[in-house]
Amino acid sequence: MATPSEVPSLPVPWPENAEIKVYTGGCHCKAIRYEFSHPDIYSMPVVNCNCTICENRGYLNVFTYAKDFRFTKGSADDMTTYAFGDCKIIHRFCPTCGTSIGPTFPAKAFVVVNTRTIDDIDIQKLQLKPVDGKSWPSGPGTKVGEAK
Ligand SMILES: [Zn+2]
């Protein structure tokens, strides 16, 4: 059992004792497939950020631990990446169909999943949480609602 200091915090913390589900998803052409663990996505806030990249790519984001995300088809090496500014965020997308599965923070122990790429997700049922990333001086920070 890890002590709290050993457990990295997520930008949107999971409720204690939440039932953890396994979600699957991937890109449109199915070259990239993934699965990850997360509490019921409809019961938690989904980050709707207005920073330039989130708006441009249509991200609606949830967060999971890097150890709880894995590719089931393709890999990170099969994806094209994009980074800008000093955000230290790597945006990953399928080189064939262009789908963005979500950015990663290499220095952090979590990854971001673009809920739009989750299998059978009902976007209309998500609890979108507005986040004002546009106002942060150097783009989105690593803590929701907190500037760097
Ligand atoms: Zn694809």
TrEMBL record:
This is Mss4-like protein. The keyword Transmembrane does not apply. Belongs to the Gfa family. One of its GO terms (molecular function) is metal ion binding. InterPro entries: CENP-V-like, CENP-V/GFA, Mss4-like_sf. Pfam families: GFA. It comes from the Eukaryota. It comes from Mycena rosella (Pink bonnet). Residues 23-137 form the CENP-V/GFA domain. Keywords: Metal-binding, Zinc.
